[in-house]
Amino acid sequence: MPPILCLGLNHQTAPVALRERLNCSLATLAGHMPTAVTELALISTCNRIELYAVIQPGETAAAAPLLNLLAQTQQLDPAELEDYVYFLAGDTAVHHLLRVACGLDSLVLGEPQILGQVTDAYVTAVAQRTIGPILDALFKTAIRAGKRARTETAISSNPASVSSVAIALAQQALGGLAHRAILVVGVGEMGQLALKALRARGLTQVSVANRTKSRAETAVAPFNGRAYSLDELPQAIQAADVVITATYSPQPIVDIKTIGERERPLLIVDIAVPRNVDTAVAALPHVRLYSLDDLQATLDDSLAARTAEIPQVEHIIAAETEQLSTHYVELTVKPLILEMRRKAEQIRETELERALRHLGDVDEQTMAHLQRFSHSLVNKLLHEPTIRLKEKAGHQQAGEYATAVRELFGLPEHLS
């Protein structure tokens, strides 16, 4: 594999507070790219920040420049990050990105959003002109693997987060949510996942309540709903048909008094730990209350179904990785093949001109025949050497074959 590197941190290695501090753009990083780095791409989400880089041949201390790059753009000491980052190289870095794109390294197994985020990272790197032939091939392969995983397996087909299961349960209980007013209480990790799942389903009548109202306002911005503080919770619940509670509180924040008198049905799904909703609420007329325990069986079944798909996804990753390796092999000999063909073309043109001087004036049809003949002759002569070079590039004899070709064809030692 080419000198591909990945420096990153994610939900498994770093707390959310640090991940938030490291939120950055490729444009910022590109302005400080180390000289050793020839290609660069960035995946930046709420759950992961990963730099993918290609370095100059012969560079050994590769992790430090990338760590310094990530730290300096956010005005941090690299020592603050050392305990939280992981560093991958070569085959391991390639395999990791393909697993990420397929949803095998996500907080929720098989979640579909990450494939779009990998695609965005590729598009951004192309726009910033920080990507070259090596990362271009890598990201295209990862995106293709991610698409195959989602179309050829069921890795993303079942709701596999508490939030997604809660919404699926509400949809089933009410026969759909398209025209229902939905309230999400809390914008922590669980609340954010609930909002993401609602948005993915195209639901727009969503309001948000949170202890800090400004955070609720930010969270509700993509929706056609309102922001509430927790002091306004009774008012918010009165306006809702469905309530999903997902905020941390040592004591219930929703009780009989909070709900008040209702004329129309209310469905509450409490996914918080500890519970946000007093269980006595279930006795109220027109109110249906579901807790985390009610969701667990569905969640376990969904996760088991997704887990069963992992071997098939890994098979897709292995096949795509093999194809990528073949492509990289061809990249290593491409300059030599191009130079070999360039020299052959020069010889063809010289000899054709010499032949035409002896033939004198020829008509257009004869000229076309001569051109086709000379092109065909060169292509057939170079076909076998080209195939052999590509075959041997991935083996130990690659250097020997390259040297032999240079000597036999009189090619320069160093090709660009």
Q: Looking across the biggest beta sheet, what order are the strands in?
A: 7-6-5-8-9-10
Mean pLDDT rating: 90
Find the structural class using helix and strand composition: alpha/beta
Domain module count: 3
Count of alpha and pi helical runs: 15
Which percent range describes the beta-strand content?
5-15%
For the termini, the CA-CA separation is 19 Å
Number of extended strands:
10
CATH architecture of the largest domain: 2-Layer Sandwich
What's the Cα radius of gyration? 30 Å
**CATH class categorisation of the largest domain:** Alpha Beta
- Poorly predicted ranges: none
Shape, per Cα inertia axes: elongated
Give an overview of the whole structure.
This protein has 416 residues and is α/β, with parallel strands linked by helices. The chain is built from 15 helices and ten strands. It has a six-stranded parallel β-sheet. A four-stranded antiparallel β-sheet has the order 2-3-1-4, sandwiched between helices. The chain starts with a strand and ends in a 7-residue tail after the last helix.
Key words describing this protein structure:
alpha/beta; Rossmann fold; elongated; 416 residues; Beta Polymerase, domain 2; 6-stranded parallel beta sheet
